[in-house]
Design goal:
The protein is of the alpha+beta class and 341 residues long. It is 30% helix and 24% strand. The strands form 4 sheets. A 5-stranded antiparallel sheet has the order 11-10-9-12-13. The chain has a 4-stranded parallel sheet with strand order 2-1-3-4, with helices on both faces.
Amino acid sequence: MEKIILLTDYKGYFSSKWSAIPYRSGMDKELITKYFAENNFVSEFKSFVDIDFNNEYYKGKYILYSSSEDNELYYKSYIEDVCYGLELAGARLIPPFKFLKAHHNKVFMEILRSTMGDSTFNNIKASFYGTIEELKKKIDSLNYPVVFKGASGATSTTVYLAKNKKELLRIARNYSRTINVGYDVHDIIRWIRRRGYIRESFHRRKFVVQEFIPNLDRDWKILIFGEKYYVLERRVRKNDFRASGSGILNYTECLPDGLLDYASDFYKVCKLPFLAIDLAYNGSEFFLIEFQALHFGTHTLDTSPFYFVHSESKWKKIKGNSILEEEYVNSIVKFVQKNFY
């Protein structure tokens, strides 16, 4: 039987689940074990802190893991260290480390998107910056209005529309501020004493500036697990441009022609067992807004009364509720059987 290792966090939780009880306690590990066993897989849960890099135990092993959304992403940084080490040690991380790097990191998400080699999914112009000073060097070359995105943040909490250069600078300055009074005062003293010294920036939180797509009144959150597509329509709030976090949600089978094909094409490019994507459509062109390969919200799957599958050259709606753990395991099993590694 194939063994698969699942890494739990310091609370003993695995991954994320919208309907988890207790609140935010992740997936049901007993259900995961059950569904893996039914597919002839042995599942072994281990904590990140239990990983020992002084042997070759993990070489060639399939390892499932999740990310973290802790404040300031301190624990996520630790998870990145361990997972990158496992990838270097020859483990088969699902998903690969690059997708963990892109979680809650919109700067790297844009970099990853650009390296995928398909312009179909890179049709939104974007630039990214590590400091406010870098933005100032490029600010006159931008076409306004633009969308400002903080590198981290969910439900559009760090997403803003800047109508002109002045607004963009104000938004970027407020978001990117990095204040450490003791260090900053010390650096100012160095700047005064040392001729030619350029002081450290006071604004070093990275961010993205993206092309604004006008006349969008909605987008679609699509969760893909194996062959199943769960779609949630999200309307834009009144006097706003953001659909994410609006709370105006609808499950509908009336989708724009080509929406699921576009989602499927990107899913195939990523070569993943599961994926969450946000798509928009302006009446003539689809746009990939964002994507996540792990630790994404599961509300769409947990509450959807149906899903879509591609069968006999067309998309079909299948009525019925789904169990997250079952779909998670099924997608992993199919992924391993297809031998993507």
